[in-house]
Amino acid sequence: MTALPPVPAAGSLGEGMLAALAGMPDPAGASFADRFEQDLTERFTSRHAVAVSSGTTALHAALSAVGVGPGDEVLVPALTVVMTAAPLAQLGATAVFVDSEPDTLDLDYDDAVAKVTARTKAIVPVHLWGRMGDPASLRSFAAEHGLAVVEDAAQAAGSSRGGVPAGAVGDAGCFSMKDGKILWSGEGGYVLTDGSALAAHVRAFRSHWLTPPPGGRSQERLAVNGRLAEPLAALAQANLRRFPDLLERRRTQTGYLLQALAGARGLTPLQPAKDEAWNHYAPLLRISLPAPRAFAEHLARQGALSSTGTFRLVPCDTRPMFAASNRTPCRGAAEVLDRYAAAITREAAAWRA
Question: Torsion-angle region of residue 45: left (phi > 0), alpha (psi -120 to 50) or beta?
Fold first, then answer.
């Protein structure tokens, strides 16, 4: 196996932070955030980018911008984290959980069709682990049922499918910059969109509606404090400039691990689709050992992080806050989470259920 490449040069990470700090206190300061947004549009060829305080805030603002509100229903994969569905509760809407195909991770569109009602307003595809479903199928389904598409692309910066980048499939793409993401700033997020009105709504929503969209009035509606702090914007901007190197390093890291696991008993990597350019955010393996979730939890105790073992990822429709309103279990999502996790060869060879 080849050695991992060196960490990409930090360059102006510290310089940008110091410059941002030197300009404080400034209640209206946003010069670094403004420049970061401009750089985002150039890097990801989107007409508009809006920087916000987190990936959850990005979803909250974008869902508000497509008109989701009290009484609406929104289709959400059960194969996701609580943070995807939380903004819907804050908007007074209901998350309706949809199953996934265990072998592809894509949405189960038969299940989605069965769950569409007159109240369904939007669909939120989730690119968990950086993996994308088929954009053509998603666009066709959304168009047929008149649904807005707001992507949870928190882990998918740099991924694409069929030539369509993550975040560019529908009305808006929502990204996180939490520490550990490929493009990171400790905390933060951003929304990408080609819609001018949508971007204007998100900008107003992130700042208590102080600067309303064209034709609106300041503070005419309740919103949130979801601005990206200037020091974090400076850090994000510096990392965006070295994004190709950060992306390549993550791809190399994941490739290195998958190569190390080649031949491990009971572990089979889930390969991306032929037209999928995966950012390699996290390795994904099928566990065919007995008691796969127990095995993943065993690995976590050994220090090998995984979604199921470390973070206790379960189908979102089984979480206590959602279970009462989602009575049809999403068995495909449960199967995915019982069969896939990160692992190491030494532990696999020694495991006994």
Answer: left
CA dihedral angle for residue 195, residue 50, residue 158, residue 151, rounded to 10 degrees: -60
SS3 category, 330: coil
pLDDT tens by residue, 30-63: 788 999 999 999 999 999 999 999 999 999 999 9
Q: Cβ contacts of residue 8 below 8 Å, gap of 6+?
A: 242, 245, 246, 249
pTM: 0.87
Give the 3-state DSSP-derived string for 255-314, with helices as H, strands as E and coil as C.
HHHHHHCCCCCCEEECCCCCCEECCCCCCCEEECCCCHHHHHHHHHHCCCCCCCCCCCCC
Q: Which helix (H) or strand (E) holds 238?
A: helix 230-241
Q: Which residues are catalytic?
A: 181
Interhelix angle 55-65/196-205, nearest 10 degrees: 120
So what's the pLDDT on residue 300? 78
Q: CB neighbours (10 Å) of residue 197?
A: 13
Helix (H, G, I), strand (E, B) or coil at 338: helix
Q: What are phi and psi of 330, to 5 degrees?
A: -90, 90
Closest CA to 77 of 60, 97, 95, 59: 97
